[in-house]
Amino acid sequence: xxxxxxxxxxxxxxxxxxxxxxxxxxxxxxxxxxxxxxxxxxxxxxxxxxxxxxxxxxxxxxxxxxxxxxxxxxxxxxxxxxxxxxxxxxxxxxxxxxxxxxxxxxxxxxxxxxxxxxxxxxxxxxxxxxxxxxxxxxxxxxxxxxxxxxxxxxxxxxxxxxxxxxxxxxxxx
Length: 173
Fold this sequence. Notes:
The protein is of the alpha+beta class. The protein has six helices and eight strands. The protein has one domain: Glutaredoxin (3-Layer(aba) Sandwich).
């Protein structure tokens, strides 16, 4: 009787483990938070990519226009893929692109910009990733649309594509 009870407990335990593991395999582990409320841009001071001087957010976001904040790095392959679309977007007079260079080697980042072009009106350096986290990012690339009231109104996780580019154009009209 005791051995039958032990066998039953082991079978129930293994069945439970199987169900948990099976459920874990089938569930997506990609978490993408939605921005439902407009969120203020963070107040910050960061190093300018070109001059290495510190600039604050009030000077960067001073104009009454839309801004696109793109978090990128030279080591990020999807950043390379989205770069031509950012170059196209930079031709618009309705928006300014701000680049946040994330945890990157400065020389490699400069080579990236020299090779692929500079779509950004300003690039700021985020050596330790804290500025990106303050924006609400948790990886690269991520892109934020900021309205004329300096509020984050849209967040795109991963590289932008043609559909996202068209959505951004509709937002900034």
